[in-house]
Amino acid sequence: MSGGHSSFYWPMRLLPKAKRQAMFALYGFCRAVDDISDGDFDTDTKRAKLTTLRAALTTWQQTGIALHPAIADLAPFVQRFTLPVAELELLLDGMETDVNSPLTAPTMAELSHYCRQVAGTVGVLAIHILGRPDARDFALALAEALQLTNILRDVAEDARLGRLYLPKECLDQAHILVQSPRAVLSHPALPAACMALYTKAEAKFSEAEALLAQTGKRHLWPPLAMMAIYRSLLRRLPRRDWSAPPPRLGHWRRLLIALSAAWA
């Protein structure tokens, strides 16, 4: 997916130059990792690529030599914005989970841990770039809300890839006893399971709002834009067939939301 079509594009593009460059470098690292995890490679190749990237990250930490372009792009901003490199390692942990042991009807606790790995990491790094490391709890709550929205949006696509992120508690609540991704996708109670996770996502957005009220909005308009974009998307999801391709917010709609957040 090109940057212009990403929900993250305008909230990043409207930042001051140094922060914008740092955000796009972080986005580039995330895309490099994600392209390995979701790419058309066999499992052994994915493992090898992730191992190589992790080794390159370790080498850069020890020697200052960046052997991977995504690390080279991000490296200048690590010291400038005091980025915690441990978050990049945790992100790799999450992607290795996707490759080595993809989640299939995880418990809610397991899903929350996965969200921390693949989304919370990015949120923590982003608020350092924005100069608001004190807003960590807000960033983590929002990141989980965004990731749960992604999971609900991509239920059908994930099932076709053999993945099932809907938690066991939601399946049990809907009386879905099967755990095969394709079987769940065709189950008549799928909407009930999705709505159970929808409730969790809405609660996480509300938690993020409450934490934001405590920390204040200063310098946090990009995550506020992401919150508005994704919450708008989340609320569109129940209107469609959960087993069908997801709805998308248009390019200009995302720009308008980003501008509204920037000028709020």
UniProtKB/TrEMBL annotation:
Recorded superkingdom: Bacteria
Keywords carried by this UniProt record:
Transferase
User: Known EC number(s)?
Assistant: 2.5.1.32
Q: What is this protein called?
A: Phytoene synthase
| PANTHER family according to UniProt | BIFUNCTIONAL LYCOPENE CYCLASE/PHYTOENE SYNTHASE (PTHR31480)
List all membrane-crossing ranges: none
Pfam families from the UniProt entry: SQS_PSY
Which SUPFAM superfamilies does the UniProt entry name for this protein? Terpenoid synthases
A GO MF annotation of the entry reads: geranylgeranyl diphosphate synthase activity
The organism is Magnetospirillum gryphiswaldense (strain DSM 6361 / JCM 21280 / NBRC 15271 / MSR-1)
Provide the top EC class.
transferase
